[in-house]
Amino acid sequence: MIKTQPWTGGTDEEYETQHFGFGAQCFKIAVRKMVEQKIRSGVKDMESYLQETLDLNDTDKLTLTNSCDKLIKLFYERADPCLDVIDKEIERILSIPSNVVLPEDEKQLKQASDEEYEKLKEEVSVLRKRAEQGALMEALLNAEVEELSSIEKLCEVAKKDMEVLDLLQKNCEGNNDVRKIHKESLFLCASAPFLNSNTVGSRMILFRLIYQIQNSHQTRFPLLILRV
Hints:
Order of helices and strands: HHHHHH
Structural class: mainly alpha
Largest sheet: none
Number of helices: 6
Shape: flat
Strand content: under 5%
Oligomer: single chain
């Protein structure tokens, strides 16, 4: 391979890249890579042509390949002095003198005063506070969104419960036996204080009563009627 200096960067390289879009170091490396590729591709094309046109056995083909590889290395060695001259010319053309300021950097020639510097610090402080407030507001909004999501889930559950209750009411309206049992259970709860519907014992008594009436009437109805 052709000897190539590694890219090291630096202020000059950055300034050249800012102005031209590439620096001298990058350009020199690209030129050397291009010359190396051209030498290798030219010799390999010649090797392929000779193998196709000449009637060679395996030994001759191997000898031809080795000879072409040696020729490539020889071209690489002979190309170094010429590439050194090209490198110096690239540095001369792309080098930007230290006393030259690019048009986009002319505004930096004017240094900021102490008052302007303090003003910039205040603006930065204000912007930092706004950023913190924005982050806090975002956190609050995210919490509110999560709360609204949980409320929506509760609404969906309540909606399903209302649909079940509506269906139960329709069944009760269309079934005289179930409606009669429902009225009797309400009457018992209102007449007997110990049959308060909020107690476990009263629910057991109501369940037995309704179970007996159900067996006598042979009527199927949802057990949700116990929750009166």
